[in-house]
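Lab manual, section 2.4: Encoding a predicted structure.

Procedure: take the sequence of the chain (385 residues), apply the prediction step described in section 2.3, and record the output as structure tokens. A sample record is shown.
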Amino acid sequence: MKYIIPTFEKIEWMPPTITLIQKLANQGNEVVYITLFPDTYFSGYRGDGSIRNLSLCGKNISLNERHRYVKGISGILFRIDNMIKRVIATRLSKAIESEETDSSILWVVNEMTVLFAGTHFLNRRRYIFTIYELHKKSILTRRIVKAAREASIVVVPEYCRAHIMQSWYNLSKCPVVLPNKPDIDINLLADAETNAAIEKIESIRNSGKIAVLYMGGITPERPLDKLIDAIGESEKYRLIVMGKKSTYLDQLKKKYPGAFEYIGNFTPPQHLLVAAHAGIGVLIYVSINQAQGLNALFCAPNKIYEYAGLGLPMIVNDIPGLHFEILTGKMGHIVDYNDMNSILSALDNICDNYSEFSKNAIIYYNRIDIDAIINKVIDLYLAAI
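Recorded output:
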């Protein structure tokens, strides 16, 4: 089988997309993924199938420029922006046409693809559509709604999001839930930066402290202040922060000098080689505005599977997207990040029962069969057409 996958986000920062492409290829399929800019992430792939990249533009541009295309701008620049989108849509349609066969399957991954290219390339085509985030109906997101309504199958990463999206977009069928669970391989060769970060964590462990790891976006939407207040001066715990540098990180360093260890940012899957040396994982999702509210409340983080697959117990805040996963998985504690005692008592209890929490985390990770869900999506698609 041949799969054609248009996806306009940077592949290396989209673990769910990486997992989907690898899973399809590992089943012996040919996978052609179409990106805006040249991509070499899978250049070293060795498996049962094949993975090939087609790019619509000859060279890369900055992330800021990409975001400008998505958000849209005003006046003459807005018209130029729309012209660029029409060019991209035409190129994308031709690229798909050049790869299509009677049996090929078009799987549009990531709603950003239709925000960039519109929906004209989908006309008279059957397709599967993966939507990662919740987007309320608006002028900006009308393309996402149209693409979702006309898709043979819609795929989302979280159960509550599936039902919310069906209601918001008036979909005839509830989307299929394909969790953001990545494959975990810690037998990869670590690069120099990764080894340096691992050495920092090992040094902390050798000092007798537990390495408490936060990895992800370092932004006010993932507030670390109260966590640092709780364990920044602890003789038992040391907070490790992994993620892209940001203004918020600079603020934390200034506010809490020496109270936590920033170890850098790592391209997946190198980040997992580092995370494997930590002791406890941290997840924080806070709704700071209405636009991001439901995405935070009904979050679908691949981090929960990354921590679980590494056997790391977790502390999380009390929101629907994390509450039920942690309670049913029995792999950590729900804490109030505004309460130092809540944080410390949770960490202490995890340490006192570490083996049980760690075992439960691995059980939680193994209970999801991504291959089976992908096959279900394909079966539903074939039945629909």
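Check your result against the sample. The chain has two domains: 2-181+368-384, 192-366.
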